[in-house]
Design goal:
globular; 4 strands; about 30% strand
């Protein structure tokens, strides 16, 4: 499994719009590009959000995924409007995995 970790620096006051657009983009990527989905996290800095996306492997992540759906393209534009900058912070291969869906009881 391959993981990409992104850091989104967003313009002040755009968090709600960014998060809505991020979700639409993420759903489209999941439905059309072979990802396992993504999570978006807030940080101590209100203008920095961190995304974590899972893929079956690096090759699937690196493919040129050209989506032409109008809703996807509009959501990408809204996302870009909110951004100051986007960085891929880490590109990770899973070496060991003990992440659980629920806490132990």
């Amino acid at each position: 499994m391959f993981i990409a970790v992104y850091e989104f620096e967003i313009k002040e006051g755009t968090e709600t719009e960014f998060r809505k657009a991020w979700l639409e983009v993420t759903k489209a990527v999941y439905q059309n590009c072979g990802s396992f989905g993504s999570r978006l996290h807030t940080s101590d800095n209100p203008n920095i959000l961190v995304g974590y996306a899972q893929w079956p492997d690096r090759q699937q992540w690196e493919k040129d995924h050209e989506l032409t759906d109008a809703l996807y393209l509009q959501a990408r534009q809204r996302m870009k409007y909110c951004l100051v900058q986007l960085k891929t912070v880490y590109q990770l291969e899973v070496s060991d995995d003990y992440l659980q869906a629920s806490p132990a009881t």
